[in-house]
Amino acid sequence: MPPRASINARELLLSFGAIALVGGSLAGGWWQGQRSRGTHTSSSQVAVERQAEQLRQRLADGTASEAEQQRLVQLLLVLNQQEEATVLLEQLADQQPKRWQLRLLLAELHRTNNNRSAAERELRQLLNLSPDRIEALQLMTLLQLEQGRGNEAQGQLKAQIEKASKPALQPQVLPLGLLLGDLQQRMGQNAAAGVTYTKLASDFPRDPRPLLALALLRQEQGDAKAAQEALAQARSRQPGSRDNLLDRVAASWGISNLRQAETTTGAVPDGRAPNRGVTKEPSPGTTAPGSEQR
């Protein structure tokens, strides 16, 4: 069985701005972190409980501000009071419909509590307002995958990609495609994932993320040479960049000469000879690496 890429490599890929199904949404990672920070010592637990009780009283008196209500949600999650946190979060999400992050967190809470129908309901409400909200699509895709509906999720993503590709390629094709590729990997469809990443690399020739995703795929397949080639090409799309993230990915794989490799590697990931004379312009609104899609 081929070795899998290290956890550090996948985390580095995510920090570079690629979209992946890592077992939870951004909201889920946030509240899990809130919980872990609050349960180290009994003294901190007591302090959290005291603060939560004070905010509960302000909420009951009708004097709690929105910020205090949100703080109470955080504290309730730290205390693992998920049912109470869910009720309060539902109120906040209804009161502040423009704060889509609240409804995303609510969906993640429902998922964590194994109430997947409620989680899907919240996500559909988000997607009805903003169909391309990638964070909601990420969690929806994960929900569908967990329920054995991966093919359904693929069909929906492919339809959105096709719609966003006509008459001209739109920037949202990139995050949608990255999400599709990772879903295909999770379903064991590595060949399809490779095709997805390679097409994205061609469609967005200045963005290193598709090549970085392809490198991770090849590394997980045990093809170190192809992984190094893809990683080197991703690095070449950041000439002069001071960001050493790709070098850190390479180091996690035991590749120490990434900059040298990018000058000596001649093949492109799909096996074609590189075309040095043609530069394809990216879509005007292509999301920059590491930036958040709005």
Describe the secondary-structure layout:
Blueprint: H1 7-15, H2 26-37, H3 42-61, H4 66-78, H5 82-95, H6 100-112, H7 116-129, H8 134-146, H9 150-164, H10 173-186, H11 190-203, H12 209-220, H13 224-236, H14 245-252, H15 258-264
- Helix fraction bin: 55-70%
Given the C-alpha coordinates, what overall shape results? elongated
* Secondary-structure class: mainly alpha
The major β-sheet equals: none
Radius of gyration: 22 Å
User: How many separate domains make up the residues?
Assistant: 2
Return the string of H and E elements: HHHHHHHHHHHHHHH
Strand content: under 5%
Core attributes:
Serine Threonine Protein Phosphatase 5, Tetratricopeptide repeat; elongated; mainly alpha; 15 helices; 0% strand; disordered N terminus; 294 residues; 2 domains
Question: Can you walk through the features of this model?
Answer:
This protein is elongated. The protein has 15 helices and no strands. Mean pLDDT is 78; it is low at 1-7, 23-31 and 257-294. Helix content is 65%, strand content 0%. With 294 residues, it is mostly helical.
Brief summary:
This protein is an all-alpha fold.
